[in-house]
Amino acid sequence: MSEKAPMKITSNKRPVFWAWIAVAPLLVFLGVLFFFPVLSLLGISFGEDQLTFEHYLRIGEVPIYRRVLLNTFVISALVTLLCVIVSYPVAYLLATVSPKVRKILFIVVLLPFWTSALVRTTAWIILLQRKGVLNDLLTGAGLIDEPIAFVYNLSGVLIGMTHVLMPFVVLPLFAAFINIDRTLIEAAEGLGAGPYSIGRRVIMPLTAPGVIAGATIVFLNSIGYYITPALMGGPGQTMIAMLIADNINRDLNWSLAAALSVVLLLCTVAIFVVFQRVFGLERLLTGSASRGSTAKFSIGNNGRTGGGWLTFACGVAVLIFLIAPILIVFPMSLGSSPFLSFPPESYSLRWFHNLFEEAKWMRGVFNSLQAAAVAVSFSVVLGTLAAIGTMRLGRRMRPWLETVFILPMVIPVIILSVGLFYMLAPLGVIGNPATLGLAHSVLAVPYVFITVRASLVGFDRNLELAALNLGASWPVMFRRIMLPAIMPGVAAGAVFAFIQSFDDVVLALFLTNIRSRTLPRVMFEGMVHEIDPTIIAASAMIIMLTLTLLAINLILSRRQS
Amino acid sequence: MENSSSARYGLQGRPVTITGLNKSYGNLRVLHDIHLDIAAGEFCTLLGASGSGKTTMLKVLAGFEPFDEGRLEVGGRDISNVPVSKRNIGMVFQNYALFPHMSVRENVSFGLDMRKVPGEERRKRVDEVLELVSLQDFADRLPGSLSGGQQQRVALARALVIRPDILLMDEPLGALDKNLRQSIQLQLKQLHRELGVTIVYVTHDQEEALHLSDNIVIMDEGRIKQSGPVRELYFKPNSSFVACFLGECNLLKDTNGREFGIRPEDIRLRAQGEKAAHLVNANVETVVFTGAASKIIARANDTVISANVANSAAVEGLERGAPVEFAFDEERVLRFGTAT
Predict the structure, then answer these.
(1) Strands ordered across the beta sheet of B223-229
(2) Which residue among B221, B241, B261 closes a domain?
(3) Which end of chain B is more exposed for a tag (fewer CB within 10 A), N or C?
């Protein structure tokens, strides 16, 4: 009997232990290369030698700084408003066309979304500059006598930023449209509502949460924006990120740059916290996830109303606005003349030859690929491990970790760049492509975390238990059961990580030198002076690369389902 | 011949002994001092409502969930601290948990791969077990292309092929429709008889438990209310809870105010001048025709009594409010212990 006496066994805590082991590498990585450099700016902002508030006081006192702050908010608000206005017709269009057409239109929306912001800015300048495509067409048609100044002023900044950021509104808005139950519209019609009342009293309230969430993300991105205002704006459109960069590059005023960074950081974090309180983290994590609805939103049985057709036409116009700059790059890159004209008088591969033969371009491509290789491998391994570990931790711990892991996506790159530059310059590692790759990993890891997390949500925990029950060790189970199941998420994460790294300009401006500069930095520096057709050839190449990657991702995800 | 198939599949059911098992989630105690003996080759069903602790107990047995206190033995071996992968316990999941990217053959073969069974023998054992569940023609299909019933059989084959010491089944028929469920119940019972494997089966469906089991363990709020052979539980429940959980039961009070139970099928309409140990006067609420018989639902004071009686013109003619006199015998009365 004594043999059978109940014995005390210690509660099995090992799963939690291993979950922390999986999460720890990313926590350490972000701690060193994200939180430390960003928070150290806080210290510098109060003076490098002694505690002082003078830098903050100067921001408040010097008129130009006040104007830049005001600019930043006004431009961000305008861009947000524009994004919302132009997104409604597009989302309506996407929701009401046949599924086949919708697939094509989706590519029109997503391609610019994933194309480098630098490439898109390049394209807009070609289109809009004084001797650009649009002015050529308008004067050619006799509509105007003098070219209109579209770029290097407020309109340039607004067009460029709206184009870059508007998919953040279109995608959740489309999801909201698709989720409107068709019977609700019918019920409203049955109660005597006309198209206007339906729009105002049914569609607007039902789509509002999606729009507000998207708009918040746009605003969040706008206030820290660097490239587009720097390239498409004039002196009057200087925004805070540019001011930070100038204070470091030109004035070497670290403390003032740090103080400005802290102001930007606080604004960003405040908006992020509000967003998280109102919408929850889930919306950022799942993006435009849509739930099934009984009857899909569609046009009424009587066809489109007049207003419907008007919205339809606006939607088409916005889609043209989205895709035009992407398309224009191809013919322009094949022109033979060094002077940009549309359509090109004669075609040649001259600028592509130039791209592949001139040392600075090829070195740039090589440096970019090196950095991307580092960024993809680090972010995929760390992000995947962290996603697996996080899913295994308790409900109380999870949201905190998720917030920590997606924060690098929220905080403006300029802040990270300045912080990393300050931390790394004394160590003498600036100029090494691996350093840039590690910095890119910080930007890319949230994307991997999000995509892998999403595929883990769909992974049946019982499959893991079944494999263990059949005698598999955890590593064997991971290799044979879990990894095949989450592979599409990992692959998508890798694609997004690559794109993040390959598109980055801001980190490259701070963390590379003349020998290690990446392709986007070479392009950016070229554009500050004049648009060399080789830049357009490079842009065409980047677009094709993006298209290929997106196609691979699409095929992978389709094979999964 | 008797032993041929269990010998062929190399299965040998083992006994299970659970001693003093306790488990809590934080402050919530989900298993209270569980003691249970399951004989080798027995079909034992854990029956209870959701939240009764039956699934938790299965997970503890499989090793998916840790426990706080107690001891688990299978075939005399203490497995309390043996990791999941070394327990050699078969498991059929409620949703089958078939690996979606592997063919039926690969699914079934997985456990043998893990045990490093040589290729030739592995193939032979997979073929045998697929034949046993009549799926030899589906070996190369992916689970997603199979029907629910076929998937269920793959899950069973995958659990059996490793020659488990015991087989755990977590509501394995829950996802199937009623007709299919009944035919699979029959197959399962036959398979159990042939193979002699020890089965621990979890369900909330009392009918299913009655059909399949040798022994039933009735659980409620993390405790075992009663366990024993099916008939013993049905005819000698130790509490009104067990009596009402397993089958239908009327709860009445005797002249001393003590509660007792009587099953509807043990109540008859009193024949003219009949003498019986128990007589109850009641008024008809409704008569339900159930096909093979009729169910009279009647009210005696504030107690509702239901009685299953043979179909007859007299029964059919009973109007609402009509007085009836029920009779039943002392030996059919269910007396509960004083504990509950």
Answers:
(1) B89-92, B166-170, B198-203, B43-47, B215-220, B223-229
(2) B241
(3) N
